[in-house]
Design brief:
Blueprint (H helix, E strand, L loop, with lengths): L1 H9 L5 H16 L6 E6 L4 E6 L6 E5 L5 H9 L3 E6 L4 E7 L2 E8 L18 H26 L3 E6 L1 H10 L6 E6 L6 H33 L8 H10 L15 E2 L1 H4 L6 H7 L2 E2 L15 E6 L5
């Protein structure tokens, strides 16, 4: 906080008091709660947010016209938001995974319909047809619930439940994009075990995707070297000419300077050019849309309290 105060003074920010007050409130809040390997606090006149990070980060305070989002972006790549669909014959529960935890996001109970489930006489010839009809109606309702949620919250998906029921659901579902894994719910005895298993499934999927991406890069460098752009200048030029198939950034890559390359094009106004000349500590993921009114304070630290 002392470093932020000094930087605000050096930048000539006139509204230091409300920014420091907001920062102090966030510091007091996170100091009494659990954290993970790292912590980031963002404060401006319009935004006040704190995020726990699953990886340690270099401690620093940044005062600029835009937030230092690299640690948060890295955290989202390490553990992106995902949904866990817990499917049982008598109920389905949808859980949203974000910020290191799971929270309920939806549920469906076939016994809570407008009318009760009518049971055919035991041994009757129509029992099988009724069973199949009810099962398909229930699973299609689950798929609608899943699709409605993911249309508003795009995310990776993990399925959990009895294997035969999951097979049947996958055969009719229309919302299995980014399926990261399937879990046999009978193998887990507690909710925590199931939550950890869903996290592991996401991590395994990410490792597979990372290996595939590196494999594609190596193949392109071998077979089509002219299609591969390297270095930040080469990437900026390429993205202005064509849409890339993939953008890979080393985790430790930092490129301080001005982001004129990102925001200035022919015909841009002089005010835009002056704004683009403002120095930032890291050019990656910085664009005009991320500018906020006044100063943006970013505090990042490697907190290790559990």
């Amino acid at each position: 906080m002392a470093q932020v105060d000094r930087e605000l003074s050096e930048h000539g920010v006139t509204n230091r008091a409300p920014l420091l007050r907001k920062l102090a409130e966030q510091v007091s809040r996170v100091a009494v709660g659990p954290t993970d390997q790292g912590l980031v606090i963002y404060v401006s006149l319009a935004v006040t947010r704190s995020f726990r990070l699953p990886q340690p980060v270099p401690a620093r305070a940044v005062v600029e016209k835009t937030f230092a989002t690299r640690p948060l972006i890295s955290a989202l790549y390490r553990m992106p938001p995902h949904v866990l669909l817990m499917l049982r014959p008598t109920c389905a529960h949808l859980y949203a995974g974000a910020d290191g935890g799971l929270r309920p996001a939806g549920q469906l109970d076939p016994f809570k319909g407008k009318s009760p489930i009518r049971m055919p006489p035991a041994g009757s010839s129509g029992a099988t047809d009724v069973r199949d009809e009810l099962a398909e109606s229930y699973l299609r309702g689950v798929d609608r619930m899943l699709g409605d949620y993911r249309s508003k919250h795009p995310s990776a998906l993990v399925l959990a439940g009895p294997p035969r029921l999951l097979d049947r659901f996958c055969a009719l579902s229309r919302d299995l994009e980014r399926l990261a894994g399937r879990l046999d719910a009978n193998q887990y005895t507690t909710a925590l075990d199931l939550a950890l298993a869903s996290t592991n499934a996401i991590q395994d999927s990410l490792r597979t995707r990372r290996a595939d991406a590196l494999g594609q890069l190596h193949q392109a460098m071998r077979d089509r070297p002219g299609d591969v752009a390297t270095g930040i200048d080469g990437c900026w030029r390429t993205m202005g000419a064509r849409k890339p198939a993939m953008l890979l950034v080393e985790e430790s890559f930092i490129s301080p300077g001005t982001h004129r390359r990102a925001s200035v094009s022919e015909g841009a106004s002089e005010s835009t050019n002056r704004q683009a000349d403002r120095c930032v500590h890291d050019l990656v993921a910085v664009g005009p849309s991320q500018y906020v009114k006044g100063a943006a304070v970013s505090v990042v630290g490697g907190v290790r309290r559990r």
